[in-house]
Fold this protein.
Amino acid sequence: MRKIIKLNNDTQLIAQSLKNNREAQKLLFDKYAPRMLRLCTYYIKDLQQSEEVMLNGFLKVFTKLSSFSHKGSFEGWIRRIMIWESISYLRGKKELLFTNEIEIYGKYIENEVELNIAVEDLHQYINELSNGCKVIFNLYVIDGYKHAEIAKMLRISEGTSKTQLSRARKALQKMISSNQKKYHGTK
Amino acid sequence: MERNKYREQIQNGFINPSEDSWEKLHQKLDEHDQSKNNSYRNYLKYAVSLVFIVSLGLYFIPTDYNPKSEKIGIEQQIKQISIKPSAIEQNINSRLEITSEKKITTEIPPTNNFLAYEVSKKIDIQGEESSEPSETFVFNSNPQNTKNVLLVITAKPKLNLDYEVEELMRIANLNLEKDNQNLNSNRIMAMDLLGEVENDLRNDHRRKLFEKITISIKSPGILEIADRNK
């Protein structure tokens, strides 16, 4: 008879997953997969590819689970893996290009955009950005990484990171304002 | 504030993966486990093979194996010479020290004034001499004797300077003989002569230059170096 284990929290699930318990692994997967897939779609436009990347990410999560030190949140650890996996995927496809043009990013920061838009719309706008801008925007704005961390992560200079972010903001501003004008105009 | 609100909303957003996503992951995990097991098995195979080869090697090495004995070989030069026994005896006495003497009865024809000369030296694997060379002389001690008793004398070079002096004298004599032959043939090698003249000139020039320098040191003035061609 199959032994039924009551698995309530992450710690128990992790402990069981470490013993290669597929049931526990499935529970962890079911718990975090939807949010991680959403995260991947912010980096990779195509949903199928995002799912593939997410599955590879979960494979790493379960095979490297012993390296999770329980210091931070488990979700945060998985998120980092998913971000890395997404960046690696883009790098592998040679879709991650950064142009190092000097731009004055400061003036755009002062011009805060009115973020009176739905999250879904914002997601759509972000997806319209080039991969380089999108990745840096996501890392900085959504995942809260610092420019220094982004530069280290992507092996680029901090200046490039700032430039790309400024370009992303500029493009988003343009997209949002044109959309708002269109919306008000049609009204 | 706005950014945080959006960040929270984005982070909490979700998209349900496809229904077979867990099955795919399950399969990937199984494949990973399988490959992990295979790699362990491969390591085990290599380890077992290595142990087997080593033990096989140890089994076939003889117990009285002495690696040093294999390294040493004997280089032999055997010459047949036709010098009279008295001459070789003289040679032995002048430059060699007899280490052993033994008589052997052989079937060598008594008329043959047989003599064998052998130089043996032990060499190691690098071809370097590992011990003093020894020389063995084999000759018919009594050619008239039908039984033909051979005398085998083993000797090693004497450790005195006489032999070396003799050797030097021999070389000097040879050179002298060569020079005499050249003189007798009334032929002079042009290049040798030119070389000698050149050497003389060089020595002369050096001597003059040295003299000049010594004079100038003694009485400081303008140092003039004589042109060697003058």
